[in-house]
Amino acid sequence: MSLISAITAAQRLDSRGVFKAIVPSGASKGDYEAVELRDGDQKTYHGQGVLKAISNVETIIRPALIAEKFKVFDLESIDGFMRKLDGTSDKSKLGANAILGVSMACARAGAAAKVGFRFLAVTKFKTEAYRRKDVPLYDFIRLLSGTPLPYVMPVPFFNVLNGGMHSGNSMAFQEFMIAPVGAKSFTDAVRMGSEVYQELKSVLKSKFGGSAIGVGDEGGFAPPISRPEEALDLLIEAVERCNYTGKVKFGIDPASQEFLLDRFYDLGFKSSDSKKMSSADMQSLYHELIKKYPVVLLEDPFGQDDWESWTEFRKTCKIELVGDDLLATNVTRIKTAGEKKACNALLLKINQIGTITEAIEAAKLAYSYGWSVFVSHRSGETTDDFIADLTVALGTGHLKSGSPCRGERVAKYNRLMDIEQELQTRSVKSSYAGEKFGQTRSV
Ligand code: PEP
Ligand code: MG
């Protein structure tokens, strides 16, 4: 029978060199994220160890889940049970890192439990008889979430210039992304993105010298620049040199909560020269950037509690406006944002909420408002490629997993190319989201 019989947990490194159990971790974390348990023992890993979370999996979650005799494919019940076992609203008792690791493992076990899955597919989703012998993770989650066919392959948003909390340069804005919307397929988009990335490297080397091509947390370059226009001009040059003008668009995540102080946004927060901007100044700056450059997506332009600025800006913003710290993948925050008309897209980070079931609920709620869903990695990542399958499963049409560089970033892109190839081999219909990256599921 497909019952849970064993669960083990262990510390593993993430890309920042901190031990974690397969679950990633952020640097520019929002205050409303579920709690990640760290040991705080300064003698080990500078207090960043996760032995308490490991112990919670092994001594609390494991025996309780095994005793309940859940079917491994019944992820909703497993996740719901773990939430109750934790009993807090932010998973601070057992740790979102402990719970999420189990939730992800159970999703994989569910996909592997073929007999049980057939049962699930037939009883719960009567319309779709499932006849495959092996069930890929993206299909398991797709059926679980009721995502309609055909499959949509996402546009990869490659973060090629790193600033903010993700690098040591003086650029306040955290991420400048390139999005090959004009590619023919996901695989083609990876090629185009990689070519622009390599071209950018040459541009930076000739402009600033060899020291400018070192990379930040997400594999993007961190040259000695500070203004957003400088970053975008560099991207324009690299894209032009590849002859991809019009085919590669841009996304920006200023991660502005990090430089919000006393109602002012300080663009000089990483240097000795402060450059304080009011919300109105920031709104004008964003409008200018969107007018001058092919920017199609803007994430966290304002702080996590600056609802007024979000709502005001959304009235005139014509591009995708993504809430990350604002929403924290949390349905309560998403509902507030829906009422306030604060944004039009959800950034989906599984470790912000701590179970796969809740991440699916968050995505479905966002879709119900006609929003887009943008799947995201964390700056402290692991080589786990779970979010690649999740992106296809939910048909989100776009994801960000850093630059086409560094193992933990490319693991997701490589998995997505495998999925694209597998779908072709299976002769099932799929399309590349392209220019419609944000409208794959809008109502
Ligand atoms: C982000 O802000 O979107 C991000 C990926 O960074 P972090 O993981 O540091 O929150
Ligand atoms: Mg962000």
Query: What percent of residues adopt helix (DSSP H or I)?
Result: 40-55%
Kindly report the name of the CATH homologous superfamily of the domain at 151-436. Enolase-like C-terminal domain
In CATH, what is the class of the domain at 151-436? Alpha Beta
* SSE string, helices as H and strands as E: EEHHHHHEEEHHEEEEHEHEHEHHEHEHE
Largest sheet: 8 strands, mixed, barrel
Contiguous helical run count: 14
- Supply the helix-strand structural class: alpha/beta
Query: Kindly state the mean pLDDT as a whole number?
Result: 92
Just name the CATH architecture of the domain at 151-436: Alpha-Beta Barrel
Low-confidence stretches: 17-21, 125-129
Strand fraction: 5-15%
Widest beta sheet: strand line-up: 4-5-6-10-11-12-13-14
Number of strands: 15
How would the global form be characterised? globular
Span from first to last CA? 40 Å
Family: Belongs to the enolase family.
Keywords: Glycolysis, Lyase, Magnesium, Metal-binding
Cofactor: Mg(2+)
Binding site for substrate: 166, 175, 299, 324, 376-379, 400
